[in-house]
Structures are given as C-alpha cells and as structure tokens.
Amino acid sequence: MHRLITIRASHFCEKARWALDAAGVKYVEESHFPLLNRAFTVPKGGVTTPLLVCPDGKVLKDSNDIVRYADAHLTAPSKLIPQEWEGDIAKWMDKANQIGIHSRRVVYFHLFKYMDSSVYETLSDGVGTLEKVVGWSLLPLIKFAIKKGLRVDERGHNISKEKLDKLLDEVDGQLEGKQYIVGNGFSAADLAVASLLAPIIFPPFYGAHLPDFRESPPQVKALVEQYRARPSGKHCMAMFSQLRKSKL
Ligand SMILES: N[C@@H](CCC(=O)N[C@@H](CS)C(=O)NCC(=O)O)C(=O)O
Is it the case that residue 113 has pLDDT exceeding 90? Predict the structure, then answer.
C-alpha cells in the first residue's frame, strides 16, 4: 500500500490526492500539522508535503512527481498527461505551482486576520489524537512559523495578490472559449490549476476540511466572490464539482 504524508488542508496535497484518486492508486493518508510534518518527511529524505512512499520503498517528494507517477497508472483516453500535450501541460503545472504559492499567502493572510478561530480546526484535519494535543499546545509557535516562513504579512499579501492576479489573467486568457486549459479534455493542467487555486475558491468536494465559506466574515466572502467570478474561478468550481466529486 502507498503511504501519502500530508498536511491535509494543503492544496499541494490536494493535487497529489486528486491525481492518485483519478488513477485509482490505493493509498493511506497520514496527515500532520505544518511544522510537525517535518518529523515525518525529513527522515524519509524529504521536507514538504505531499510525500508519497511507494510499496517498493521509493519516495516521491514533490506533488508534480506524484501526479506523473499517478498518470503512469492510467491509459488513453484517461491519461492526465497525454504525450502529445506533455510540453504544454508541464508549463501549466509549473504556473499552477506559482498560483499555489501566492494563493496560499493571500488565504493565510485572511485566515489569520479574520478567521483565526478556525485555524486549528483546518490545520488539525486528519491528524492523529496525540498529535492533535501536541499541535494545540504548539499552535502559537506553528502560526508564528507559518507567518515568518511564508512572509504572511500586509506587504507579502499585497505582493502575492498582484502576482496571483497576473497569473490568473493568463489562465483566464487561456480558457477563452475553452472548457479545459490544454487541448480538448481534462488534464493534469486543469487538475493542478484547480487544486492550487482552491483555497481561495472554497469549491465543493475539496478532499479536506476547509472552513465553511458561508459562515465566513464579509472580508473573506468578498475575496472568494471576487475570485469565483473570474473564468479561472469558474473553471476551478467546474473541475471540482464535475470531476473531483466522482473521485472522492
Ligand atoms: N513543491 C512542493 C511544495 C509543497 C509545499 O509547499 N507544501 C507545504 C504545504 S502547502 C508544506 O508541506 N509545508 C510544510 C513544510 O515546509 O515543512 C510540492 O509541489 O510538493
């Protein structure tokens, strides 16, 4: 059996989970708090999550590698990375990672500022009982490490929002008159962009607990609605409701 080490709410982890689910690769998910994840990834030669331990002992330390590994289990016409579109898909997967870096900072900024009380619930999703207790007592340190490590502050937020908007202009342009980002069918490009934009869209059928968008304060609602209104936001909602749903 494969073991997927995650921070469950992480959008990079959702990308890996979705690809494995789409390919029918069986795995057990082992979720951890941010920061505490390193006690489980570093001994396996990794740092961040997702990290996949394969039954033969091989370790995949990057979400794009996990998507490619999952895709190797698929055959045409279900492939996430059809050979003819490989180059374009790789380009969009890289762009999706950039989207993920900036959407994460914007979302953390809003979460800490307006929804601080829901941070523990979100970060502790899927974590074992003992680690939940440890995570609760270390929560101030974990939040501090996230804020410092990812530069989640007013300035960082403003920079990331601008970069995110530019990246999404490109996605919006690419989607003009099209349902999918590359070619005529769902691919790893759609999966990656939708997953990495998801924390700002709150799509249904996300594979982890996200705070209830309907209960969120007006500042967060306004942010989500602004991004949901864009073609890239609509694409994210559509990919999750039409395609992620059946793979959960
Ligand atoms: N390039 C990596 C990035 C993954 C990443 O940034 N993961 C974050 C969660 S969103 C993480 O594990 N952070 C905890 C840490 O840095 O130890 C990938 O695609 O797998």
Answer: yes
Q: Per-residue pLDDT for 156 more than 90?
A: yes
Within a domain: residue 114?
yes
Q: Are residues 135 and 162 in the same domain?
A: yes
- Domain assignment present for 66: yes
**pLDDT at res. 247:** 59
Contact assessment for residue 115 and residue 211, using Cβ atoms and an 8 Å cutoff: yes
Of 27, 46, 71, the last residue of a domain is 71
Quote the mean pLDDT of the chain: 95
- Among candidates 240, 232, 223, 237, which has minimal Cα distance to 111? 223
Nearest CA residue ID for atom 11, ligand 1: 48
Q: Are 108 and 153 in contact (CB under 8 A)?
A: no
* pLDDT, tens only, 137-152: 999 999 999 999 999 9
What one-letter code names the amino acid at 247?
K
Instruction: Give me the residue label for tokens 């989970």.
Output: 17
Helical ranges in the chain per DSSP H: 11-23, 38-41, 63-71, 86-114, 119-123, 129-137, 139-149, 154-174, 188-197, 218-228, 231-239
Which atom, in ligand 1's list, is nearest to the CA of 149?
16
> Hey, which residues does 29 pair with through a beta bridge?
4
Instruction: Name the residue among 220, 123, 248, 102 with its Cα closest to residue 168.
Output: 102
**CA 197 – CA 210 distance, rounded (Å):** 13
Inter-CA distances, 153 with 131, 145, 198, 211, 240, Å: 28, 12, 21, 21, 30
CA 50 to centroid of ligand 1, rounded, Å: 7
How many whole angstroms from 51 Cα to the centroid of ligand 1?
9
The alpha carbon of residue 211 and the mean position of all alpha carbons in its chain are separated, in whole angstroms, by 15
